[in-house]
């Protein structure tokens, strides 16, 4: 509401200025009543101005010109607003396409990285299986070697005992 009041005050001020200019330019053409009003000789300047309809014609013409100019400006701004709206929509669509393409590219990169990671997991699982099999083979060989060593140790103990017996017997025979 305050902006409307300011607008009306501004319009009133402009129109009064135009009216004064017109009156000063056409002072010689004015009637004696109009001249008295312009000089301030009348009872009430505002009342005399309103009563004398000849002052209103240039005011209305100027007001109409101003309204026409405002109408042209409004159409101009509406046209440009429409164009800007279309441009904005195009920019938004382009941004959306760019964002979608960026997201698609990022998704493809992530999928590629995931595939490589899966390949590495498969390779690592194969290596783990190979190492487990190798460890199992080595464990079996170690167990077999321990069994052979234990068997050999027993045989050696038996042979040692037999040799001692044989040596003792030989010593007994030699005696």
From TrEMBL:
Residues 114-155 form a coiled coil. GO terms for cellular component: centriole. Keywords: Coiled coil. One of its GO terms (biological process) is clustering of voltage-gated sodium channels. InterPro entries: SCLT1 (IPR038911). This is Sodium channel and clathrin linker 1. It comes from Neovison vison (American mink). The lineage of its organism: Eukaryota, Metazoa, Chordata, Craniata, Vertebrata. The gene is SCLT1.
């Amino acid at each position: 509401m305050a902006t409307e009041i300011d607008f009306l005050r501004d319009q009133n001020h402009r129109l009064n200025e135009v009216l004064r200019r017109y009156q000063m330019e056409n002072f010689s053409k004015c009637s004696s009543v109009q001249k008295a009003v312009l000089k301030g000789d009348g009872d009430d300047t505002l009342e005399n101005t309103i009563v004398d309809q000849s002052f209103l014609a240039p005011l209305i013409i100027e007001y109409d010109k101003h309204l026409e100019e405002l109408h042209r400006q409004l159409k101009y701004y509406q046209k440009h607003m429409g164009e800007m709206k279309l441009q904005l929509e195009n920019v938004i669509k382009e941004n959306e396409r760019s964002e979608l393409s960026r997201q698609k590219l990022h998704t493809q990169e992530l999928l590629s990285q995931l595939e490589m990671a899966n390949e590495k997991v498969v390779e690592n699982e194969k290596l783990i299986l190979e190492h487990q099999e190798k460890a199992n083979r080595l464990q079996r060989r170690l167990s077999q070697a321990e069994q052979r060593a234990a068997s050999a140790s027993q045989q050696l103990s038996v042979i040692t005992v037999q040799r001692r017996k044989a040596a003792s017997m030989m010593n007994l025979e030699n005696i």
